[in-house]
């Protein structure tokens, strides 16, 4: 579905992504792992249009999407989750979800004056959709809570929920598990699995928690020093000599991550 071909992203003389090539199959939950500084987030940001590549090509179902800005990719159903922006933290969880879909009639002055009924209808539909998303994520009880006041894990669920307000086809998740307790991490994992199975979402997941990767992801792609080192099941990746070397080369802390998945 998505093909990344010989992608480079340089910051001055530093090659954060250094000729990465990979495929993300439609319908998969693909894991992206690698030691700190491997270039995973930079790769994500280039694919998702947040950063423009130095060179290389990204295609989505054969269409060249290299360097397209996030809003153009958004319309194609390719989304990257973002932390809830500071300015939205005083809005409720439900309002945060209702903000997402573009092209609401209420955006134009004409409609504000002459299309009140249409706006009211849209708002009702949006509210119902937001409530459905909150229920799917098992956080209906947080609908009227301010987004800035819910826990870190609940915020991650809300970020995932934002992708459900539009017709997402492929979602990039960067470290959804960071700082999240086990119970909530399981809820996030369940939501990802259900979105994948029941709604056909494709996911690409950057994560250091190997239990999480093992439970959800097949295949797993391992990056190091801006390149793709190996691809396979997590068991295959863990047994790969080059992968072990790469984790060892960046210190014991990383090696422990590969083995224990903390
Ligand atoms: N805007 C930037 N300017 C300069 N260097 C950058 C920039 N963004 C990232 N880098 C560097 O590129 C390298 C890759 O960073 P990146 O965040 O992509 O790695 P990562 O694999 O996601 O790491 P981690 O697992 O620690 O999040 C790092 O050495 C980082 O310091």
Automatic annotation (TrEMBL):
InterPro entries in the record: AAA+_ATPase, ABC_AA/LPS_Transport, ABC_transporter-like_ATP-bd, ABC_transporter-like_CS, BCA_ABC_TP_C, P-loop_NTPase
Top-level division of the source organism's lineage: Bacteria
PROSITE patterns: ABC_TRANSPORTER_1, ABC_TRANSPORTER_2
The entry's keywords: ATP-binding, Nucleotide-binding, Transport
Cross-referenced SUPFAM superfamilies: P-loop containing nucleoside triphosphate hydrolases
Recorded GO CC terms: plasma membrane
Span of domain ABC transporter: 2-250
Alphabetized GO MF terms: ATP binding; ATP hydrolysis activity
Alphabetized CDD domains for the sequence: ABC_Mj1267_LivG_branched
Chain coiled-coil ranges: none
Name under which the protein is recorded: Branched-chain amino acid transport ATP-binding protein
């Amino acid at each position: 579905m998505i093909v990344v071909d010989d992608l480079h992203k340089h910051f001055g003389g530093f090659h954060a992504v250094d000729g990465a090539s990979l495929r993300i199959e439609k319908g998969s939950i693909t894991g992206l792992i690698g030691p700190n500084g491997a270039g995973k987030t930079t790769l994500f940001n280039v694919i998702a249009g947040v950063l423009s590549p130095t060179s290389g090509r990204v295609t989505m179902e054969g269409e060249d999407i290299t360097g397209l800005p996030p809003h153009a990719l958004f319309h194609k159903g390719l989304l990257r989750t973002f932390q809830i922006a500071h300015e939205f933290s005083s809005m409720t969880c439900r309002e945060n979800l209702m903000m997402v879909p573009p092209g609401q009639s209420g955006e134009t002055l004409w409609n504000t004056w002459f299309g009140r009924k249409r706006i009211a209808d849209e708002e009702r539909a949006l509210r119902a959709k937001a409530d459905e998303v909150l229920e799917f994520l098992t956080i209906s009880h947080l609908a009227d809570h301010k987004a800035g006041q819910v826990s870190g894990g609940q915020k991650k669920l809300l970020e995932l929920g934002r992708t459900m307000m539009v017709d997402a086809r492929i979602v990039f998740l960067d470290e959804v598990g960071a700082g999240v307790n086990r119970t909530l991490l399981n809820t996030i994992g369940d939501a990802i699995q259900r979105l994948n199975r029941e709604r056909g979402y494709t996911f690409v997941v950057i994560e250091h928690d190997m239990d999480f990767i093992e439970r959800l992801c097949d295949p797993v792609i391992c990056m190091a020093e801006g390149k793709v080192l190996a691809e396979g099941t997590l068991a295959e990746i863990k047994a790969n000599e080059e992968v072990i070397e790469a984790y060892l080369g960046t210190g014991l802390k990383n090696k422990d991550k590969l083995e224990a998945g903390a």
